[in-house]
Amino acid sequence: MNGSNNGTTDGPTRRDALKYGGAIAAGTALAGCSELVGQSENGDDRSGDGSYSVTMAPMGEVSFDSPPERIFTRLTHHAGMAFALGRGNDVNAMHAPEYYDRLWNQFTERLPGVTLDWTGLYSSWDPSKEKLYDLDSDVHLADPASVNALDSKDASDVEEIRDTVAPWFGNKFSDRHDEPPAEWADRYEYYTLWEMFEKVAAVFREEERYEALAEIHANLLETIEANLPPRRERPTAVLAGMSDIDSMYAYTLDTPGFLTAHVRPLSPIGVLGDDISSGDVIDMETLLEADPDVIFSLGGLHPETDMAGIRSSLRDHAVGQRLSAVENERVYPQGARYQGPILNLFQLEMTAKQLYPDVFGEWPTYTEGPYPAIPDDEQLFDRQAVAEIITGDR
Asked: What is the pLDDT of residue 6?
């Protein structure tokens, strides 16, 4: 790794300057705000024989004899939690493993000594019952309600796997506070990303790693909250999937849930009309009507995404070239919405710089390659500290 990632500097860093400059405001802004600090009771209940249980909706109380070793996942927020706890390479299944392996490794490049390999894993969006038996996992980090919602699975299938292979432990519908299937509604609760991570950490008996990462996360949010410009100075923004700029999937920025956990704390002003729901397809004329100051390109950090090509296509488009974000060169890449804790840290920093460069430091012009090498004194969190927590060296 080059010198920009060693976590040391002789002078004050940007996060130091921001932290001390806004300490009083931060104390006021964060008082009692559990969503920002991500603190909750993890529901860990230990018995004298070494077994223990962890409680989370919709499963309720789940018992373990020992920390799981073989880890099944479906969605990447759960796989990302295993990764954050140093267990990323113990994951045996996930949705679109080749795609997400390449995306996650855009970020691990900036974490000294951290490695991750999800290539060749079973793609588990709709796992067959036979494959679940074959994988013989010690835990299924997946929401049984969302598995039950698949056409291929009924409640008896979910219960059979729980009772004969390994327990389910996951929560999906906290992504944007969607309604779970009716038969699960009375036992469902919504969690923030970091509340859920705390409970997953308890499953693996990795509470200390969780606490260390949660402190870094809380400090980052404190820095952001203390230095946010007033609303009148905040840019308008739209998040969209831009593989086809004439038919874009658009996402609202203030939707509750962990899909916006890297954007919502920064309070950009959403400009999509009330008639547009998150995930709707819009055309260029609709985007021009909103005319955001900033356009976030979802998945723009993936190595298969051509950010230079997207910007060029917008400049060459008869309507797109009239967009304020295009005229002012404020079309930026984003990573993943189903983010785990580590991507959440990077994406909070990235989005802060993209929205407020005068406050949090400029985001480098990005066309390709891994997450940019931000100079040490411009980083909003300590890469070396995060890497050492993941590897167990801290």
From this structure: 43
| Whether pLDDT at 337 is above 50 | yes
Q: Is residue 24 part of a domain?
A: no
CATH number of the structural domain spanning residue 134:
3.40.50.1980
Helix H or strand E segment including 250: strand 248-251
Both tokens of 38, joined, read: 């991500």
Instruction: Classify residue 197: in a domain, yes or no.
Output: yes
Q: Is the pLDDT of residue 3 over 80?
A: no
For 85, the domain range is 40-207
pLDDT at position 140: 99
- Enumerate the H helices of the chain as residue ranges: 14-21, 23-30, 34-37, 76-84, 97-108, 129-135, 144-148, 155-164, 193-203, 207-227, 284-290, 307-316, 324-327, 341-355, 357-360, 383-391
**Which tokens belong to 172?**
């999906």
The tokens for 159 are: 């219960």
CA-closest candidate to residue 263, choices 240, 290, 233: 240
Calpha distance 99→300 (Å, rounded) = 13
* 8 A C-beta contact, residue 71 and residue 135: no
**Cα distances (Å, whole numbers) of residue 321 to 178, 318, 327:** 36, 6, 7
Question: Per-residue pLDDT tens for 114-123?
Answer: 999 999 999 9
- The three-point CA angle 189-176-280 to 5° equals 150
Closest CA to 324 of 350, 344, 348, 295: 295
Q: How confident is the model at residue 50 (pLDDT cuts 50, 70, 90)?
A: confident
Number of domains in the chain: 1
Three-state secondary-structure class, residue 123: strand
Tell me the whole-structure pTM to 2 decimals: 0.89
Mean pLDDT of 262-284: 95
- Collapse the DSSP code of 195 into the 3-class scheme (helix H, G, I; strand E, B; otherwise coil) and give the result: helix
DSSP string, 29-84: HHTT-HHHHT------EE-TTS-EEEEETTTEEEEESS---SEEESSHHHHHHHHH
Mean pLDDT of 343-356: 98
